[in-house]
Amino acid sequence: MLKPRATRDPLHEPLPFRDALAVWFGQNGRDYPWRRTTDPWAVLVSEVMLQQTQIATVLGRGYYTRFLSLFPDPATLAVAEDEPLLKAWEGLGYYRRARMLRETARAVTAAGGFPDSLDTLQKLPGIGRYTANALRAFAHDRPAAVVDGNVARVLARLLDYHHAVDSPSGLKHLWEVAERLADPHRPRIYNSAIMELGQTFCRPGVPDCLACPVSAFCKTPEPSALPVKTAKPKTERIHTHVLWARDRMGRILLHQEQGKRRQGLWKLPERTPEETADLPEIATRTYGITRFHVTMHIHECADAPAREGESWHPEEAIATLAMPSPYRKAVEALLA
DNA sequence: CATGCGTGGCT
DNA sequence: TAGCCAAGCAT
Question: In what residue span(s) does the HhH-GPD domain sit (predicted)?
Fold first, then answer.
């Protein structure tokens, strides 16, 4: 891996660093729909959708455009029911984001508009330090710095920073650096540029330092070794047993989540291994969720008493319900 | 401060 | 295949 030697320090010479980023971005910046608007609502929707979610997912499957046509302003989302909201979010994951976005829409609607102070923005549900600053930079073009996964990687390499970037102390340091580096005169361009740099040249694994517009400012001799992250617990293999139950009318038994996290989503009813031991297993599916590798065993039964939170649904109604992806796929395969 | 939260693409 | 990673946040 060939990498040009660092000849300049971005913290010591922030002006040429910002210029190099701005020039490159001005000629090569990508055209995303959320870069074509300054509407705080449209920007907020994009930022929340993009939390821990790749651009290709949000764009490729049309989530962003569809969501904004369904909920074009905060007042519309503020009065939306669970079902259309969760359905619009189906497949994006982290479903709590959708509910928190509606809570924020209600607060903004009640207040008659978006707050402009960083502290007030950060008190809104689902808006943390990153999203609050992103709103200020991308919607209002006001001085702000952001640290997301891309920026953390870029800064760690620029500074040859070998502490864990996902630890609280590491993040604190990176935010301080980010605020010193950020361009106070071109917040929108600067923040767009440094994030896009992390998606393109300064990508995870082996970066493309030879083409990087700021390689002269980059201190690390071994970029592929950065950033350092805290060790994650090893994936655990677990098994679940669910029912594929249809009554005499052909209706399907489903369970609606009640907890804090996935409230409102519909799943196949779960039973203990003992309860399904005598039922024929008609399919198994595997999927990953957080730190678990799940093998879902699907058992067929003609009928079953509905328990708390469970109800029967005609086949035509299934498509209108919001289901987590693994269950959506399982149901579609079983109905095919 | 560590952990849980979804999903899909890439290595 | 298994692990890593992504425009983080709340608890």
Answer: 49-200
Distances (CA, A) of A291 to A49, A217, A287: 22, 37, 11
Task: For residue A122, count CB atoms less than 10 angstroms from its CB and return exposed for 0-12, middle for 13-18, buried for 19 or more.
Answer: middle
Domain segments of chain A as ranges: 39-140, 144-231, 236-335
d(CA A197, CA A23): 12
d(CA A66, CA A54): 17
pLDDT for the residue A120: 97
Q: How many CB atoms lie within 10 A of CB A73?
A: 14
Q: If you classify domain A144-231 with CATH, what class do you get?
A: mainly alpha
Is A47 among the catalytic positions?
yes
The domain covering A39-140 belongs, at the CATH homologous superfamily level, to: Hypothetical protein; domain 2 (1.10.340.30)
Q: Which residues, other chains included, contact A243 with Cβ-Cβ below 8 Å and sequence gap of 6+? A: A253, A268, A269, A270, A271, A276, A279, A298, A299, A300, A301, A304
Give the N- to C-terminal CA distance of chain A in Å, as an integer. 49
Closest nucleotide to A265, Cα to C1': B6
Q: Is the CB of A287 under 7 A from strand C?
A: no
**pLDDT 10s digits, A136-178:** 999 999 999 999 999 999 999 999 999 999 999 999 999 999 9
